Fold LysR family transcriptional regulator.
Amino acid sequence: MPDLELRHLRAVCAIAEEGSVTKAAARLGLTQPAMSAQLRTVELIIGGRLFERTSVGSVPTDLGRQVVATARRVLDEVAGLLDPARERARETVALSAAEDRPGGGHTA
């Protein structure tokens, strides 16, 4: 069985927010078949349908609402973990670039 990945959580959240697999795919830069494949993978891993496909779009099932709520929390936690690290990396790059400029580095 495949592992659940962050991209799967993003896909599930996007489908819930957009109400459409096609719109969610466009938002994440995927094709509709690729998004549908990700959804099928998540449903296989979770063990149930996450969305009912209706004439008006994709509506979360009870299980889907639970998974979406948990996915949002996980994605928020991951962002909270990565944001400070990314900020430090940007500061390091900016400092390095400043040191590489003439007159921008340390003097001996």
